[in-house]
Amino acid sequence: MDSESLSSEQLQRLLGEVARSARARLGLTQAQVALRVGLVPNVYGRIERGGMMPAVPTLRRLARVLELSTDALLLLREEDVAASVHHPLPEVELSGDLRQLMVLVRGWRPAKVKQLLRVLRLLEAPLKEV
Prior knowledge:
130 residues; mainly alpha; 2 domains; elongated; DNA-binding; Lambda_DNA-bd_dom_sf; Cro/C1-type_HTH; DNA binding; DNA-binding protein
């Protein structure tokens, strides 16, 4: 299932399933996870049952306790997630030449990128007949 097409309820339910599986893998009880995350056991139980979505700080703590990435908790595929702010999503549909250009330009100063854009716009403009 595409992660972008999930409703909030579906995402909550799937997150709960992932959390439950990870907790079982670690041999922990709901109460133990709740204590480590800093939640009341009833609240953690609601998360596992898909009844609520944790706040971002809680999600981070939950991922740490369950020894999962937040990407795994949210069922994001590797290709849906950038490695970091400085390494955006891969352009999988780009040709080899375009990918090489992206890699080259990625490290340039903004002024140099603006110069390249000017050159590209000149190349894109229709030729004037003399």
